[in-house]
Amino acid sequence: MASRGALVFLQPSRLPLDPYLPPASTSQQQQPPPKPHLTLTFATSLDSNLSLSPGVQTVLSGPESKAMTHYLRSKHDAILIGVGTAIADNPSLNCRIDGVGGYGGEGLEGQPRPVVLDPKGRWEFGPESKCIALAREERGKAPWLIVARECEEGKRKMLESVGGRVLQLPASEQESGRYAMDWREIMVCLAEQGVRSVMVEGGGSVINELLSPKYFDLVGSVIVTIAPTWLGKDGVQVCPDAREEGGKRIPVSRLRDVKWIPLGEDVVLCGRPNGN
Ligand SMILES: NC(=O)c1ccc[n+]([C@@H]2O[C@H](COP(=O)([O-])OP(=O)(O)OC[C@H]3O[C@@H](n4cnc5c(N)ncnc54)[C@H](O)[C@@H]3O)[C@@H](O)[C@H]2O)c1
Ligand SMILES: Nc1nc(=O)c(N)c(NC[C@H](O)[C@H](O)[C@H](O)COP(=O)(O)O)[nH]1
Fold first, then answer.
1. In angstroms, what is the span from residue 250 Cα to ligand 2's centroid?
2. 3-state class of 155 per DSSP?
3. Distance in Å, CA 144 to ligand 2 centroid
């Protein structure tokens, strides 16, 4: 019987996903590879929205695809989100699939490391924030925060008290005032911390950057849950910047090795960027 509150994702549903998971060899290697396997994954509506609006969490996945997402979490060393998602969702960022640590399993076995990309230190977390509380209860790993400038002492102490860490990376300040880090440097930084695979869950600005030609080669696989709903025009859209070559519009990016897997009322699209 499944442990209390745990999600179940049975073997027949797991099989078609296997080719898109991080290579098994990476989890057994002594030396981490120079960059982690990156799985880009999110849930979208039929009008390519992640949520109803930027500050709002919107449930799109049905129970079967939610269990699938947690199965994916169990197969990655780390799970990364942008600070916009941390603020909007107060996410748990742990894995609640039956049999992992904290959900019927030993220690923190199968739990991914939550990583929040927060260059300006906007995330106001406290002891009651879900992923901090779960780390204290030993039902999830403590988060790492990637910042561009000195982290407030109180925040650093709170993170470290549950086993978390602050990582500082250079960022360039854009005209808009936004701090932008290079995704290649983010991946190298994670590899240096021993991370061999990372599941990037969003939100909109993170996904749109990784789908752009500048970074698409970093992505090892893409796994998208498509829910049978429309969210409307003011949603957070998955829609990378348009692209032109020789004065002509061309597709921004495209997947190959594509598989469509119906799961409950949703469909899960798996694919790989060209060349990966
Ligand atoms: N349906 C889904 O699967 C899903 C998944 C995640 C989030 N969401 C939703 O998406 C919304 C949040 O999306 P969003 O676009 O507002 O925020 P986001 O989560 O993409 O975070 C954006 C922030 O991340 C940081 N960031 C992103 N790229 C960076 C880079 N290259 N260098 C440095 N910092 C960088 C910046 O601080 C930026 O402001 C929420 O409503 C959330 O519920 C949905
Ligand atoms: N697969 C998926 N389906 C959804 O319907 C949805 N809204 C998200 N959103 C992803 C985002 O990263 C959220 O923050 C976490 O899904 C919340 O994570 P928790 O369950 O709290 O661990 N992801």
1. 31
2. helix
3. 18
Between the CA of 132 and the centroid of ligand 1 the distance, in Å, is 19
pLDDT the model gives residue 264: 96
* pLDDT above 70 for 276: no
Q: Using CA atoms, how far apart are residues 46 and 255, in angstroms rounded to an integer?
A: 18
Domains contained in the chain, CATH given: 33-273 (3.40.430.10)
CA distances, 276 to each of 93, 118, 218, 260 (Å) = 27, 28, 9, 19
Residue 183 CA, closest ligand 1 atom number: 31
Report whether pLDDT(26) > 90: no
DSSP-derived secondary structure letter, 215: T
- Cis before 203 (ω within 30): yes
Whole-number Cα distances in Å, 34 to 16, 29, 38, 189: 28, 12, 12, 10
40, 44, 48, 89, best to mutate for ligand 2 pocket (most atoms within 8 Å of CB) = 89
- Evaluate: CB of 64 within 6 angstroms of ligand 2: no
Checking DSSP bridges between strand 113-117 and strand 144-147, what pairing results, if any? Answer: parallel
Residue 4 Cα to ligand 1 midpoint, Å, equals 31
The pLDDT score that the predictor gives to residue 32 is 66
Residue 68 amino acid letter: M
Q: What is the ipTM of this complex?
A: 0.98
Contacts of 31 (CB under 8 A, 6+ apart): none
Distance CA 80, CA 150 (A): 20
Please list the residues that pair with 259 across neighbouring strands: 270
